[in-house]
Automatic annotation (TrEMBL):
Protein name: Histidine kinase
Residue ranges of domain EF-hand in the record: 56-91
Compositional bias (Basic and acidic residues): 58-70
Region of interest (Disordered), residue spans: 29-70, 131-151
Pfam families for this protein: EF-hand_5 (PF13202)
GO MF entry, a single one: kinase activity
Endpoints of the signal sequence: 1-26
KW Signal (keyword) present: yes
Length: 151
């Protein structure tokens, strides 16, 4: 019985000490200083460009090629290609059973590699690799009415 009372007393002392520490920290906080005034608009204003520069398809394709070409030798080997395809593993379930067997994955991936490797050299050149790119749809054009100004 005395162990129970000693445990209860120590728990109450710990809770009391926690409350004292909590309240002492809250009282010692200092007020946050006001932010400095913003610089004048004329000093920081720069005209915005009319159009936003976009990456060309070649630039995007070069970055994609470099992600696959780990040893930076200018060619993607079968092993380099398959290493990156593991990321798309879940998309390769051909029979729709929710489980992906190695055969499903290997057949689709090696078929894609063999199709892209046009000269059957066992490695893809930049041109051959470009045929494996995901075909992107152009964004739908939205014709919005012009904004009326209150001149």
């Amino acid at each position: 019985m005395w162990r129970f009372l000693a445990g209860a007393l120590s728990a109450m002392l710990l809770m009391g000490a926690g409350l004292v520490l909590w309240n002492s920290q809250a009282a010692s906080e200092q007020a946050i200083p006001d932010p400095p005034p913003p610089p004048p608009a004329a000093a920081t204003a720069r005209p915005l460009p009319e159009t936003v520069p976009a990456a060309t398809a070649k630039t995007r394709e070069e970055r994609r090629f470099d992600r696959y070409d780990r040893d930076r030798n200018g060619a993607i080997t079968r092993e380099e290609y398959l290493r990156q395809r593991r990321k798309a593993y879940a998309k390769l379930d051909t029979n729709g059973d929710g489980r992906l067997g190695f055969e499903e994955w290997a057949i689709r991936t090696t078929t894609k590699f063999a199709t892209a490797d046009g000269d059957k050299s066992g490695a893809m050149s930049r041109t051959e690799f470009a045929t494996t790119a995901v075909k992107r749809r152009a964004p739908a054009r939205r014709d919005c009415p012009p904004v009326e100004s209150d001149g």
